[in-house]
Design a protein that fits this description.
Order of helices and strands: EHEHEEHEHHEHEH
CATH superfamily: P-loop containing nucleotide triphosphate hydrolases
Family: Belongs to the small GTPase superfamily. Rab family.
Cofactor: Mg(2+)
CATH class: Alpha Beta
Number of helices: 7
Protein name: Ras-related protein Rab-34
Number of strands: 7
Distance between the termini: 69 Å
Strand order of the largest sheet: 1-3-4-2-5-6-7
Number of domains: 1
CATH topology: Rossmann fold
Helix content: 40-55%
Strand content: 15-25%
Enzyme class: hydrolase
Radius of gyration: 23 Å
Bound molecules: guanosine-5'-triphosphate
Largest sheet: 7 strands, mixed
Subunit structure: Interacts with RILP. The GTP-bound form interacts with REP15.
CATH architecture: 3-Layer(aba) Sandwich
Structural class: alpha/beta
Low-confidence stretches: 251-261
Length: 261
């Protein structure tokens, strides 16, 4: 039996590229989607994007930095002040419509506790985006982000995966504390070539904006990758046609010389 999905929620419809948080540490500063992506979407030429493709996003970071709360704030608009450790992994599915194309993100919430880390790491593979989270009130959690990144990259292709460094619990830090840690976080983000964000799951500040940016950029890279695949296939076809033409030409030459003999 064919299952029919409900329509995408009205507040998950994206018509414009969501903007970055800080221009000093972002993946790109373009105001709108890549022109090739816009025209591919208009012509519904997005290949597997919008049909079967589900993009995987993994959220990693120290225990209790607020990974689960961030995902729950975005997906369910709730906040739980009680800490319940994630055991292994958990995931949420979010459906968007971007430039008229359906697009699904699978958000993987992984365990930060050391004893569950080995279970969680088996789910790192195949991520299109890695969200490395730290607590804005705990500098050691920022220091540990490099290790989290290294572990996640062991299972993924560093040249194609999108990286985000997210400081959580913004509501708990004073403005002077925040300014100091953000200065360090921007440096770390640049070293990692990650895009920097800060959020609060308690107040909801920047949470939606952040996940919309993740969705926009993963969508854009997926469509560009599809277009590249199609181009590569076309170039392959032209090379094949040319080599067939060449064979035809060689055969015609042979036949001609036979005729003339
Ligand atoms: N004030 C405040 N507290 C937060 C925020 N985000 C998370 N917390 C609290 O921090 C604690 C840990 O949050 P979780 O989201 O469970 O942390 P986690 O990173 O998923 O933890 P693990 O599953 O062990 O890896 C909980 O008590 C949350 O209520 C926030 O933005 N502001």
């Amino acid at each position: 039996m064919m299952s029919v999905l409900p329509p995408v929620r009205r507040d998950r419809i994206v018509a414009e590229l969501s903007q970055c948080f800080k221009k000093e540490a972002c993946l790109h500063t373009r105001d709108s989607f890549h022109s090739k992506v816009i025209s591919a979407c208009k012509q519904q030429r997005t290949g597997t994007v919008g049909r079967f493709k589900i993009s995987k996003v993994i959220v990693v970071g120290d225990l209790s930095v607020g990974k689960t709360c961030m995902i729950n704030r975005f997906c369910k608009d709730v906040f739980d002040k009680n800490y319940k450790a994630t055991i292994g992994v958990d995931f949420e599915m979010e459906r968007f419509e971007i430039l008229g194309i359906p697009f699904s993100l699978q958000l993987w919430d992984t365990a930060g506790q050391e004893r569950f880390k080995c279970i969680a790491s088996t789910y790192y593979r195949g991520a299109q985006a890695i969200v490395i989270t730290f607590d804005l009130t705990d500098i050691s959690s920022l220091e540990h982000t490099k290790q989290w990144l290294q572990d996640a990259l062991k299972e993924n292709d560093p040249s194609s995966v999108l990286l985000f460094l997210v400081g959580s619990k913004k509501d708990l830090s004073t403005s002077s504390q925040y300014a100091l840690i953000e200065r360090d976080a921007l440096k770390v983000a640049k070293e990692m070539q990650a895009e920097y964000w800060s959020v609060s799951s308690l107040t909801g500040e920047n949470v939606k904006e952040f996940f919309f940016r993740v969705a926009s950029l993963t969508f854009e890279t997926s469509v560009l990758a599809e277009l590249e695949k199609t181009n590569a296939r076309r170039i392959g076809d032209v090379v094949r046609i040319n080599s067939n033409d060449n064979n035809l030409y060689q055969n015609t030459k042979k036949n001609k010389s036979k005729c003339c003999q």
